[in-house]
Amino acid sequence: MTRPIRIAVTGPCGSIGYSILFRIAAGDLFGREQPIELRLLARDSPESQAKLKGTMMELSDCAFPLLAEMKGFTDEKQLFDGAECVFLIGAQPRKDGMDRSDLLRANGEIFRRQGRALNEMASRDVRVLVVGNPCNTNAYIAMRNAPDLKRECFSAMMRLDQNRAMARVAEKINAPVSGVEQVFVWGNHSNTMYPDIRFLRYKGHRLADQFDPQWQEEFIKNVATRGGQIIKARGASSAASAASAAIDHMRDWILGSEGMCTMAVPSDGSYGIPEGLVFGFPCLCPGEARYQIINNLPMTPDVRQRLAVTRDELLAEANAVADLLA
Ligand code: LMR
Predict the structure, then answer these.
(1) In principle, which of 7, 89, 114, 206 could form an S-S bond with 131, CB 3.0–4.6 Å?
(2) DSSP string, 69-121
(3) Which residue from 95, 104, 133 has its CB within 8 A of the most atoms of ligand 1, so it is best to mutate?
(4) pLDDT in tens, 219-250
């Protein structure tokens, strides 16, 4: 039988965690042939442990054939021991009226600790996806505190923004989202992100020129503020859509993507983004847990300016947490 893949998840009982676990265990991440082991983190409090116990009881009651083993932990080093695939979801969520920058300090300390624990305990080929916000900078903090792991082990989630952009395009052209191709999002998972539809295709045909500039501006703003719109509408931040995008991101990274996909990854200096900054780029994933930044797309002064805005925001965030970086 195939060896199980060891997956660690923080925040398993939050709403994103609760949503993602059952999909992972059902085979939505690595397919229906690949067994998995789940390692789940609970806080060191009776409430948190009771919640994790209940969640594990439910996972067990699903009788998932692929779930070879599952364990709960309160210690992050034990959690990450030998982990090959890690979802860092647990973080204080943004509430209505709160800006991502308010979350920076609150969550930064958690990601410093987790970066150190990953550095010490995880598989040297671990793949880490940070979902907890502000995810780019949290991933940056974790990466900087894990000097013995390759930078390429770390990423942050902007696939949700890509999925949102694809869905808005599909609504606009009144066609199924499955035909929408070559949409991606640059920069920070915040209001400064830049969803780029210059290369948009529908089932292989170029479409980008068909949208008027005013619609494009509204589209950019709409995608960038969609998280806030969801919080207002449901009184809580996106959960199932975030979980779904996290699965899309990790699956494409490890097994390979069909075409372009958005990943926030440490910059290799492409497009003048400072090296190491965790920035949303258009990527291709050839499989075997690798990705390549697509580094030769044409730039215009307008696009350069948009990238500079989101880059500067990330630089300011990095500056604000300078004391948490190793
Ligand atoms: C989202 O984009 O829905 C989440 O990152 C929640 C948020 O804070 O916007």
Answers:
(1) 89
(2) EEEEES-HHHHHTT-SEEEE--SPPP-TT--HHHHHHHHHHHHHHHHHHHHHH
(3) 133
(4) 999 999 999 999 999 999 999 999 999 999 99
**Cβ atoms within 10 Å, residue 308:** 15
Structural domains in the chain?
Answer: 5-156 (3.40.50.720), 159-320 (3.90.110.10)
Residues near ligand 1 (Cβ within 6 A): 94, 133, 160, 227-228, 230, 237-238
DSSP 190-234: STT-EEE-TT-EETTEE-GGGS-HHHHHHHHHHHHTHHHHHHHHH
Question: Reduced to 3 states, what is the DSSP secondary structure of residue 63?
Answer: coil
Of the listed 189, 226, 306, 311, which one is catalytic?
189
